[in-house]
Every structure is written in structure tokens, then in C-alpha cells.
Amino acid sequence: MTRWNTSHIADQTGRSAVVTGANSGLGYATARELARHGARVLLACRNEARGMAALDRLRSDVPTAEAEFRPLDLADLSSVRDFAAALDDFDGDRLDLLINNAGVMALPYRTTADGFEMQFGTNHLGHFALTGLLLPKLLATPGARVVTVSSMLHALADLDYTDLNSARSYRRWIAYSRSKSANLLFTHELTRRLAAAGSQVVAAAAHPGYASTNLMTAGVRMEGRTSAERIIDFGTGLIGQSPDCGALGTLCAATAPHMRPDSFIGPRNGLRGAPAQSFRAPWTKKDANGERLWAASEELTGVHYDFSRPAAAF
Question: What pTM does this model have?
């Protein structure tokens, strides 16, 4: 995996990919490179105007791209269900890549349409529900992968299983870190359950290091803190890497041959650099934690995974 870059992406012709949050930043860079290498790409974005603008941009950047946009609001489980139910006309029964990229970071306290704390509800529960609803397509597709984007900041906080929605207290960065720990625990438990079912679907995780995207300033912008926004923009521009570089970990996890299940791929030195296996906190690989989060996630979302699959997929 030394100095892995987009030139290492194999031909993706004939493969299909859903990328959440693909209207900008890491998601757009991921979708663009998959399309550039021949994949049929669906941009799944909350905001229709931004999603359509991203689609136009992608078609300009990659004139040969086979791509489309569909609305998906991960902070609203009815939107997740509608999106999944309408996906039958996207590449039939197959889905090669599900890129769980969309997310929110360090917001002032907000709740989703279903009453969940916004960061946990969007970053984890929305993607948990989406993956479960699209699981039949993934199971029916040889070589399918699920890549969930986490963060090195996951290491700041383990989950509080007695207060998953931060109902007792809310600290925005701790809530963000917990949601990113949830992403890794979800990947770990999904890997275990896929293996138990005899499936060859690979679940992996990735992170962008310190990437310069609009995610960094969304929280302070919502509060109108323009001075803080300028400071963050300056620091990010000074230290952060571009979205194109930040997306390399996701692209590597999605396309590199022989990717190990439950891998966590990101910049070699943590913040910047070529993709490599990354450090992850020990609590994100504990089976008991994964089982506990999984049970809670099924109860909260009402989505129960079915790991049965057609005989042709074995």
C-alpha cells in the first residue's frame, strides 16, 4: 500500500456505487474518481440544488461519467427508507460499493427528524439504517464493499451506552467523537456478522486525516461566529490537506485489491500522506461493544438486517 494514489484504482467499469454526501468535499472527490475509473455513481445528497450542481460539475470534470443524483437526508429515517425503496432501478439487483461518507461535525445541539441527537443520528444511525436497507443488493453482488468514513477524533471518546443521544449532557466535540467511534464499531460488528453468514462482502472504514472541507466550519457558521470561522479556515488552510488527498483513504478502502475486512484506512502519519492502516482505539474492536451498539441501533431505527441471500451470491 506504499504511496497509494488514484492511479492505482483498477477499472471500475460495470460496477455501481452509492456515495452519501457527494455534493462537496470528500464525497465529491470520491464520487468523481470512481466515475473517472468507469463506475456508475449515484450522488446521494440532502440538498437537491447542491446535489444537482455537483452532478453538473462531475459531468464537466469527467465527460464520460455515468452518474446521477437522488435526494437522501440521513437525519430523517423516512427519507432513508424512501431512498432505499426507490433504488431498484439503479443497476438492478446489484450494488458494488456503498460509501457511507456524509456527516456533520461539532454542531450546536440539534435533533434529527426522529428525535435523535444530530451527530449520532446522522453520522451513525442514518448510515446504519441505509446499509441495512441496501444489504440485499450488497449480498447479491460478488466483491461488494461497504466503506464508512470515520475520523481520528474517534479516539477522544468511547460511547456512553446509557446516553447515546446525549440527553443528560451535550458537548459537541465529545458527541462528534462518539459518533465516529460508532462508525468504527458498526464496521467491526458488520464484519463479524457478514463472516458468520458466510458472505464475502467487505466492510471497512476510512478517515481523511486533517482535510480542508466545509465540515470544519459548519458548527460555528450555524451560530454566526464569524471570527471563529475565519480562524478555523486559516488553520485548516495552513495544516489541512485537500479534499482530493483526504478522499484517498476512502478510495483505497473501496478499490484496493485484497482489502482486509474491518480495516481502517487513512493518511500514513495520521493527518496527511498516502493511505495506510491507521490507529484505532481499542474499544472500537470489542465484540461486546459492537453487539450492544448494534442492538440499540436496530431498536432506534427499526431496521433489522437480513443476512440471507440468493444462492447465486454464494
Answer: 0.91
